[in-house]
Each structure stands twice: as structure tokens, then as C-alpha cells.
Amino acid sequence: MxxxxxxxxxPLKLILITAVALIVALVVGIRIIPHVxxxxxxGVLIYDDSLSESEKNLIAEVVSEDERFSKDLIASAxxxxxxxxxxxxxxxxxxxxxxxxxxxxFSDISSEKLLNATNSDEIELISLxxxxxxxxxxxxxxxxxxxxxxxxALFRTLSVETTDGNTDxxxxxxxxxxxxxxxxxxxxxxxxxxNQTGVTALARAMQTKLNQVGDAGYFAExxxxxxxxxxxxxxxxxxxxxxxxxxxxxxxTLCADPRMIKAIEAIGTDIVxxxxxxxxxxxxxxxLSSLALYEEKGYKTFGGxxxxxxxxxxxxxxxxxxxxxxIGVNQxxxxxxxxxxxxxxxxxxxxxxxxxxKEQIESAKKDGDFVIVDVQFFECYSYxxxxxxxxxxxxxxxxxxSFFRHxxxxxxxxxxxxxxxxxxTYEIYSGRxxxxxxxxxxxxxVYWPGTERGIILTHxxxxxxxxxxxxxxTIYDTALQVQLMDKSSAEQFLTRILKSSPRGK
Length: 505
What we know:
The protein is α/β, with parallel strands linked by helices. The protein has two domains: 45-185, no CATH class; 189-498, Purple Acid Phosphatase, chain A, domain 2, CATH 3.60.21. It has helices spanning 11-37, 53-62, 111-115, 145-148, 169-179, 205-213, 224-228, 261-266, 284-297, 308-312, 354-366, 400-409, 449-452, 487-498, and strands at 45-47, 73-80, 90-101, 108-109, 124-127, 135-137, 139-140, 154-162, 191-200, 232-237, 271-273, 300-302, 304-305, 315-319, 322-330, 348-349, 370-376, 414-417, 426-429, 432-435, 440-442, 453-462, 465-475, 483-484. Strands 9, 10, 11, 12, 21, 22, 23 and 24 form an eight-stranded mixed β-sheet that branches. A hairpin with a 7-residue loop joins strand 23 (465-475) and strand 24 (483-484). The chain is elongated, with a radius of gyration of 34 Å. The N and C termini lie far apart (125 Å).
């Protein structure tokens, strides 16, 4: 007989059943609710055709194939001739610089040529981080990248946007992640720039002109901004200042009116080389007083001095993580015997001594210094009638090539001839540059076209390494105001002197 009596469920059992039900509901809710409240991320990152393969590969290291976003994102790249401003939706991926062969006479190209450089047989685009002195960097529409880091290049940027061309938090976050994997680029604050010039002799006809114009800044008016724009500016001053200076045209005994110091100040001079042949012309006293004036002005000097021991001392520079030892020697008609070379307590130029220079180079290289040797060599005096060109003086003269190359063999990183009144050619020898002669910066030699020309070398260093030496030809005439050559004249001039280059042979 079936009983009609129902048994009550145990309270404990009810509690367990309820708990299980709640747990099941919670688990199901956790899985379902996000899909109801938050849409599933199905967006992907799309690579635009503007990206190079290396850029795609770099991004792929940051973004995995299965990573998803709220919406489709597009990564793309573009080139611009204007440096991009800092923002959170793009990253500077590369800075591409136009370079040519070291021996090319070209110095400047147009913006249009820069954009078409990939189709050029002469011009190559390289990354800023790969720049070195084996190639010649070009300016673009007269903007030289290493001067202001703002023009003269193609700035390649990478950006991430949504498919409708906007940026959102996801796109910006992705750009931030990608930017951490791109290289950092140097700035102007990292690079040491030095302008190096040829002969300065503020004498003779220049004094006559000074009496007419009344201000020695006149001679520098057209070149001052260019020369003073670098961190350091070098001159090779061959003539001492003297209160009684009265040199006449054609005289080989030279002195400078003390007022002429304004021409030196106007170009932002920092370094005065003293290897020249005329600093004792007006007397040792005039030389010593000029040395005292340089010290008063805060100018660094080398290649000569108040006595023999001082004259031997190289200039040591330590700027912007670059150490340079700058040696100046006289290897020409000036000697200790004729009174132009420093001897004992007598002031003058540092006459070349093989043993001393060899030891100085070896010591500097041990310290990790970049070594420049400036040489006052013999001059090319093959000048004919007034107004005649003398291409033969473009080349190294007898014994010059072997002597300059010997200094490279001793360990010098660069050799520069500061004796030439007419600019000479240049070359790369054993991977290091030789500039045989820079010509005149300031002088009155308007007798021949060759002596009206000059070369300014602008050296750019990064962490002790030579990035570039920019070659800027100059010219003056009877007005005696030095200025940069125009583009066409500069290319013609460099084409000519490069015909005489030994080119490392």
C-alpha cells in the first residue's frame, strides 16, 4: 500500500542546489554578458602599399597576426621635405639624405630632384644613421641638413589611422608601441661643427680700403653669417697687428692695422692658426702683442707661439663628446734661422719636426682623438701676367703630395694645407681626406682669378667620428668683400680643381 505522505526536502540539500544553480548562472553570465555589453574585437591592422618590406617586418614584430582591434586600422608611410612636428598619431621612421660620390663637383640639388632621387644614377638616398664622410652630402635648395636638421632631406613618417581616416585611442596606442622600435635620430645638439678657412692677411690694399670705409667689419659683411653659424670658426692668420703698420701695395713685409681685429670678430673666430710666414715681419714685439690680444679675446691658438716650446703644443678640443688634436706645422721657406720660426724664447711658427709630430699623433690616437694636421707648405708661385688663370697651381706642387700622404701614414685623420693663396685640389687617401690648399679668405690678391678664390671647409663630428666635410668655395674682387660663390660658379670651379686630384692613386 503506497503511502500518501510527502517527505520534506532537507534544508541542507536545498542550500546546495541553490548554490550550484547560482554558480552555473554566474559562469554562463560571465561568458555571455561581455558579448552582449562589449562588441567582439574583429578589426585587423592593414598594411598600406606605401610601406616598405622592412617597415612591414618591423611592425610585424610589434603586432602579432592574431591581434584584433575594435575596428580595422591602416598603417601607412609618407615622405615629406618638412620635418614633422611631434604628435601622437605618427612616428619619424627615417631621415633620408641625398649623397653623391666624394669627388662629385655637385653640392646642391632642387627639391624636385630630391623627390626623384631614387631614379637617379648619381644621387643616392641614405639614412641619416648611415651617413659618413666617404660620401658627399648635398644641400637641397641651399638647405644643408647638418646645419639646422630641418631641411635638405626627406622625412619619412609612419602613421596608423582608422579606415575612415581618423585617429582614435587604439591607433595612437599602437603608434606609441611601434615608435619604441624605430631608431632615434641625432640632433644639432649632438653634432660639433667647425668652419676652417685658408689664408687671412689683413694687409696692404686692405688697409687702404679700411681707411676709405672706416670699419673693418666691411670685409666680412657678406660671409660673417655663414662663418659664425658653426660651433667653432678657424682662421689661419699670417700677419700680426701693429700700431705703426704702414704696408704698401706689393710689399712682402706685412702687418695689419689693429682696427682689422673687427673683421676677425665679425666672423665669430674661435681658433687662430699661426703657422704662417709673416707674423714676425713687423717685429717679434708685434707678434707677441698680437698673441696677447688673441688671449684677451678668448681665441685658442696653435701652430705658433710666444716661444719654441709653446709653438709646438697642439690644440686640444673636447666638445660635444668629440675630442680633437689639431697640430699646426710650417714646412716651407720659413725657418728658425730666418726669424719666422719659433726658436728658444723667440716667437714664431712651429717649424716641422718629424719626431715631435710623430709622437704627438701617436699620443693623440691613444687618447681616442681625431687628429688634424695643418701644414704651411711651399707656395705655387707660377703666376704669369695679371688676370691669367693658372690651372697648374690647382694640383699638389713638387713634394707636397708625398709629404701630406706621409702625415696620413703617420696616423693623421685629416691633412689640410693652409699655405695656398690659390685653392688646390683634394683627395681621399687610405680612407682619410687631404685638402692640399684652401686659398685666401681675407687678402688683397686681386691680380689673378685664382687668388681671388678660396675654400671654406665645414667639418661635422659626431662622437669623435667625422660625419662630413662640406666644401664651400668663396670669391672676392677689387671690393675686397668675401662671399660664397653662386651654385653654377662653385660647380665649375670644383670641376676644374678635381681634374688635378690624385684620387688616392
